[in-house]
Amino acid sequence: MEEHIFNIEGLTHQFADGTFAIKDLSLTVQQGKKIALLGNNGAGKSTLFLHLNGLLQPTSGTIRYKGKKIKYDRKALLSLRKQVGIVFQDPDSQLFSANVQQDISFGPMNLGWERNVVREKVQWAMAQTEVTELKDRPTHFLSLGQKKRVAIAGVLAMEPDVWLLDEPTAGLDPYFSRQIMALLDSIHHPDKTIILSTHDVNLAYQWADEVVVMNDGKVIYQGDPVSVFLDEDILMRAHLEKPWVFEMFQALLQSRIPAEKDLVPRTKEELLRKMERERIY
Ligand SMILES: Nc1ncnc2c1ncn2[C@@H]1O[C@H](COP(=O)(O)OP(=O)(O)O)[C@@H](O)[C@H]1O
Ligand SMILES: [Mg+2]
Known about the structure:
Layout: E1 4-14, E2 20-30, E3 34-39, H1 45-52, E4 60-65, E5 68-69, H2 74-83, E6 84-87, H3 100-110, H4 115-128, H5 144-156, E7 162-166, H6 174-187, E8 193-197, H7 201-207, E9 210-215, E10 218-223, H8 232-237, H9 244-252, H10 268-278
Parallel strand pairs: 3-8, 3-9, 6-7, 7-8
Antiparallel strand pairs: 1-2, 1-4, 4-5, 9-10
Helix pairs in contact: 3-4, 3-5, 4-5
Residues 15, 17, 19, 21, 39, 41-47 line the site of adenosine-5'-diphosphate.
């Protein structure tokens, strides 16, 4: 049976200034999925993430984590945050220790692990995100991309079951974007669930096994990563463009888009293989 990681029912969030950022949103997240959360600026993606980690409380509605309603006392939140790691959109909200290594160690230390275990995990996380050379540098002098990688290392070192990544590749150059995505692929496992928000449709299309699209505080699509790009109405409402592989394939087939969505290539390599096989030149 597929386990539900999050069940969100009728979630509404109103900020102190009166803004409704989330409006009666319902969503179920299954364990083990790699989910790309798409949506225009201001759609409510970051606000939703903060709810899933217990950093914001619903104005109304409920959020269940593994079937249990999220509670907001200190002990319950500590336990939730052990299991649900978040990488904030703005790394300056995340990093506060004097240097990189201390920052990455902060989370694992709070989990009460032994010193040598913490050291080992931190070293591993730094190597995976290629920040080992920065370990003694003050976090506030790092570039945006370096800060993002340090923030990701901090979550990686805690080995959470659920990853919430708010635009993790924004501000990273293509090399590090690919590294981070490869890292996410390597940690992915049937017991781990990853939700990643992004404006990069190419990345979402290639990486995700489920796409969720938000617009104006609501979910307007949840499903496979192919059908969404066939739905012009959703694309328009959420300001989404089509992934280039998808568009290229559509053009090549001169609108003879295959009825079976599984036939649409998701990567450059798949597209090239298909062109070879079907002799489309
Ligand atoms: N702290 C806040 N106070 C008031 N309004 C906010 C606050 N944070 C976000 N908002 C508003 O809530 C809406 C959703 O924002 P956000 O969740 O950041 O969207 P996204 O991450 O999809 O760009 C926007 O209208 C934004 O201006
Ligand atoms: Mg955001």
